[in-house]
Amino acid sequence: MRNEGAWNEEWVRARGRWRVVRARRQGRWWRVLWLVAGPGLLVMLGENDGPSMLSYAATGAQYGIGFFLPFVVLTFAMAFVAQEITVRLGAATQSGHAELIYRRFGRFWGNFAMVDLMVTNFMTLVTEFVAMVAGSAYFGVPAPAAVAVGVAVVSAGLWLHRYWSWERLTLGLAVVNLVFIPIALLSHPDWGAVGRALVTFRPWPAGGATSTLTMILADIGATITPWMLFFQQGAVSDKGLGGAEIPWGRWDTALGATLAALAALGCIVATAPLHAHGMNASAFSAAAFAQALLPWVGSVGSALFAIGIIEAGVVAAATISVSSAYAWGEVTGQAHSLNRSLREAPGFYAVLVGIAALAGSVVLIPHFPLETVVILVNVVAVLTMPPAIGFLLLLANDAEVVGHHRSGRLWNGLGIGVGCFVALAGLVYAVTVVLPAVTR
Amino acid sequence: MAQRVGFDDGETMTGLAQLVAEQESLRRRQATLGLRPLTPGLRWTLWGLRIYVLLMVAMVAWEAVTAH
User: Fold this and answer.
1) Which of A99, A387, A400 sits opposite B53 (nearest CB)?
2) Do B68 and B41 lie in a common domain?
3) How many domains does the structure of chain B reveal?
4) Which residues of A touch B15 (CB under 8 A)?
5) Candidates A94, A116, A383; nearest CB to B26
6) Residues B24 and B43 in one domain
7) From A427, which residue of chain B is nearest by alpha-carbon distance?
């Protein structure tokens, strides 16, 4: 017998889905896309987080316009392959990712997956607050105030009580990620060079093999991470999307990947003048990038850059906190939905706000090795991806779980390709970190 | 419940009831699923991936500690 809160949650989801059904019957396809879009957009724009945007900025500043432009597009294509599977899993099962792993593989393997998720989520959250503080510093905002505002935004779900409202609010913030496109325009790039680079992957990166390899792997870690799998499947399930909405969820994910790739490309192109003028950006923070770009993008462009970094941190902090809370609720069997109130799901909201507040507090600890955490977070994210993709592919091929929505040969081939690529990248990354002399 | 969710016409209520029933049915089906049988090959793959993560993270942690 389910309680009133659970029934209310189901009715709220059904109401959202009914709107989609009506729009589909009326042939209003743009409205269908508007109603279904959200989880894919949020996960992709959310993954353009603080450390990711700093990684793209460093890429542009150190290597300019060339190989990395099409490479970043390739990483987003890989992210799309992985995230498309979560749409099918969430819509076909109405269950979260952690829930399915525990149910089909047991507590032993489930606990490993949860430890991977929680460790990488917490480390990534710390870096999101580092980005918020660094971006806010450009406007002279003190660190405690930046952290407090960040935690307040993450806590929005507490008073919204609806997945839909939370999603639209966070989407509104996530759209700010696109400011990197006008910043790129302000830098007056050589569009011919941009077009040639996108088609030919040239010029190849100049400089040391180790630093280039590290940048390649940092850009992979900036696009594909475990929290994305848990978040999107949880969001698809919480939104109540069903099997009929899977094609639309696919479009949502593709749109998110396209916009996020454009923002990432914009960031690389915007910082390319630093490379052209021989500036050493290896130790730049967010505020330093904004200051350094002043001669090429003007005060408006610099301010937009700082705003973009703040947004990247805030949106990622919100989505990563929600992914942690979903996973906690799925594993413990407690209520875990943004359609519930604080009274109905106290544990869910305690995890959501608590993990963000804890990560924000860490940033304020004097002399805490934040730079080490920022460097390590992408490494650990890349290293924990292979088992996450392994579970993802096994679940997507489990006919008892997904029925006729199981992966076909094409998606399996692409999924295995992404898994092998990330595993290999992790190995090479670890070798460069642990045995730098090997790649020197 | 109809007033609470903001709809009150018959067609909508029928549609909503069907969708809720469908969601419930999906959830019930998932709840009855047991553990997936792991073949030796699958078990080795999972252990391989797990050892990969543990070794790599241990190496990176060691590097981070010794670097400071």
Assistant:
1) A387
2) yes
3) 2
4) 18, 21
5) A94
6) no
7) B56
**Residue from A24, A103, A374 whose CB has the most chain B CBs within 10 Å, to mutate:** A103
CB within 8 Å: B22 and A242 = yes
Confidence grade of residue A72 (pLDDT, cut at 50, 70, 90): very high
Question: Within this chain, do residues B41 and B30 fall inside the same structural domain, yes or no?
Answer: no
Range of the domain at B61: 37-68
**Do B26 and B46 reside in the same domain of the chain?**
no
CATH code at A4-439: 1.20.1740.10
- Give the pLDDT confidence of A186-211 residue by residue, as tens digits: 999 999 999 999 999 988 887 666 67
Cβ separation A390–B57 shorter than 8 A: no
Subunit contact A401:B33, Cβ cutoff 8 A: yes
Across the interface, which of B23, B50, B52 has its CB nearest the CB of A13? Answer: B23
Task: Answer yes or no: do B24 and B42 share one domain.
Answer: no
Confidence at residue B7, expressed as pLDDT on a 0 to 100 scale: 55
What are the extents of the domains in chain A?
A: 4-439
B46 and B57 co-located in one domain:
yes
**Higher pLDDT, residue A102 or A378:** A102
Are the C-beta atoms of A376 and A215 separated by less than 8 Å? no
What ipTM was predicted for this assembly? Answer: 0.85
